[in-house]
Write a structure and sequence with these properties.
The chain has 256 residues and is mainly beta. The chain contains two helices and 15 strands. The protein has an eight-stranded mixed sheet. Strands 1, 4, 5, 7, 10, 14 and 15 form a seven-stranded mixed sheet that branches. The chain starts with a strand and ends with a helix.
Length: 256
């Protein structure tokens, strides 16, 4: 999916209270004002670009989630890749931001069927433990072997306490589609947790995308410098360009 890399910055997202209809393709939802979500530089060296999206949940009642709504009606059976990278700078045990997929398990032509599928590293022990102060990549597909759970009872999966492989969920729900947002969720029940997220990947047999979360867009080719683009794009270190020529020179010289 390297050719489908999309940089997402603060200007691309809406910020809304949870349980409201999305007003953009990307929405950061919050349960409380304390559920802070922000684009930051770092921490350390993120997998893609100079920054990441960081979610902070100070108490067990806080919840924040960054969802994308471009994949609605995508068949679950066509999905062949889901993943993300995390950097936990505060938290305990195996707490870390999770993957969420809002799903219509009986398909869009049948009433009802909503649930949220959740991937958490704690239930995917073959991928290693969650540790602090280091970037870790998590595979939510893992050749169909990644373990997920559901927020509601659906065929083959009881709510909350049944941990089932991706392949088994798809086999038990052959008509399932993406019914809403997909993305990163933190909380509730995750007090004092600070997680930065980057390199969110989602792919199907027909399309794929990798989302790079950054506080600004880095100029990578001269065309981005034209038509005033030099005023929007920046160097990798966050510094601005003096003019279009400065921007073009930067991209032509390997961003040096």
């Amino acid at each position: 999916c390297s050719s489908d890399l999309t940089t997402v910055t603060d200007s691309d997202i809406a910020r809304q209270q949870e349980d409201t209809l999305p007003t953009k393709s990307w929405v950061y939802y919050t349960r409380t004002p304390a559920s802070v979500g922000e684009f930051i530089t770092g921490p350390a060296q993120p997998p893609l670009g100079p920054g990441s999206f960081q979610i902070t949940t100070p108490t067990s009642g806080d919840k924040g989630y960054l969802f994308n709504f471009d994949w609605i009606d995508t068949s679950l059976s066509s999905v062949n890749g889901i993943g993300y990278s995390t950097y936990r700078s505060s938290g305990s045990n195996q707490q870390v931001a999770a993957l969420n997929l809002q799903v219509d398990y009986n398909g869009p032509n049948v009433p009802g069927g909503f649930t949220t599928l959740v991937f958490e590293p704690v239930y995917n022990t073959d991928q290693g433990p969650v540790v602090s102060d280091v970037w870790q990549a998590w595979d939510g597909y893992n050749s169909g072997n990644a373990i997920w759970w559901s927020t509601r009872n659906i065929p083959g999966v009881c709510a909350f306490t049944c941990y089932v492989s991706w392949a088994d969920i798809v086999a038990a729900n052959p008509d399932a589609t993406i019914g809403g947002g997909i993305g990163i969720n933190q909380g509730s029940g995750n007090p004092n947790l600070v997680t930065a997220v980057d390199a969110f990947k989602f792919s199907t047999t027909a399309a794929c995308a990798t989302y790079n979360f950054d506080p600004y867009r880095v100029a990578t080719n001269k065309d981005q410098c034209k038509n005033g683009g030099w005023q929007t794009y920046k160097r990798a270190d966050g510094s601005s360009f003096k003019n279009q020529g400065d921007c073009v020179s930067y991209t032509n010289n390997g961003r040096q």
